[in-house]
Amino acid sequence: MGQKRDNISNCESELPLPRNAPSLAVIVPCYNEEEAFSACLEELNSVLAGLLETGKITDESYILFVDDGSRDKTWSLIKQAAVANKFVRGLKLSRNRGHQIALIAGLSAVGADACISIDADLQDDTDCISQMIDKYREGNDIVYGVRNDRSSDSFFKRFTAESFYKFMAFMGISQIPNHADYRLLSRRALDALLQFRESNIYLRGMIPLLGFSAAKVYYSRRERVAGESKYPLRKMLALAIEGITSLTIMPLRLISALGFFTCFIALVVALYAIIEKIRGEALTGWTSMMIAVLFIGGVQLLSLGVVGEYIGKIYMETKARPKYFIEDIAGREELP
Ligand code: UDP
Ligand code: MG
């Protein structure tokens, strides 16, 4: 690559890019996506064929579908596709482990020069893939797909997502707003990511920790092509908690601050109570006592809950259980 860079200064009219056309792996996590699968396959297949034709990627490129323990026909569709289409490979996890772990499973299996992760529902614009590769070839190791339009999301989803990003920023977690898990990673960024050994995974927050040069491509998010969202509120909340607790201990600090504050208030109230007692006017108010007891009780329980959340994470991390098991693979060539 150093030699390539030297060439740049000699050739002003047509600058060679710092990187050659990569072999590309497109990682697609799928959970009960039988309805969206064929549209997804067709679109990604034509995108890859186009890129191959224009010489933007090499012919070792492929699409890797990761079946995250689906209970519908998704895996048999992936297997069929892998037989019929040389671009297609598949990986089946032994059970549903969630989007983030399905992505890690896919990423761990990649041997290509670059990989792009994308959802199976085609909400993310596949036209960006070509731009992502351009940015990669210009020398970027990470290319974020960023939505510039959330109009296809419901008001509720938009509101909760925006509040979540603001809250995360308040907690000091840097992440790219309106970027989900549609991104390109170069080989070295991917190798760096795979060195993170933790089992609490929130990729969006981990990728900026890698460093390396990054770029963004913008697109407007479409409607789901078929099927329903596989992210009900429960999973969204779990992801949010995972995101916070895996990246920052700010909530623990906030509890300490709250503790100090309550102690200070308690001191003031205690002084007041003693003065009243000395003045002989101590008519102990039931209401104020109830409020104080309930408030402090509530704060304590909440704080204990937050502390417990972290202890739970430590517990899971120390067990260091395997994150997933591969039950089956499909497609040509070597997959681990
Ligand atoms: N997904 C997964 N495991 C899960 C939930 C979702 O692999 O437990 C996949 C799903 O098949 C899709 C992607 O993650 O490819 C994003 O899910 P979805 O589109 O339902 O989320 P939304 O766009 O509604 O946030
Ligand atoms: Mg979606």
Overall mean pLDDT = 86
N to C succession of SSEs = HEHEHEHEHEHEHHEHHHE
Helix-residue proportion: 40-55%
Describe the strand arrangement of the main beta sheet, using strand numbers. 7-5-6-4-1-2-3-8
Total strand segments: 8
User: Main beta sheet, described?
Assistant: 8 strands, mixed
The value of Rg in angstroms is 26 Å
Structural class: alpha/beta
Q: What's the N-to-C terminus distance?
A: 29 Å
User: Which molecules other than protein and nucleic acid are bound?
Assistant: uridine-5'-diphosphate, magnesium ion
Shape: elongated
Are there runs of 5+ residues with pLDDT below 50, and where? Answer: 1-13
Count of separate DSSP helical elements:
11
Strand content: 15-25%
Which descriptors apply to this entry?
336 residues, alpha/beta, disordered N terminus, binds uridine-5'-diphosphate, binds magnesium ion
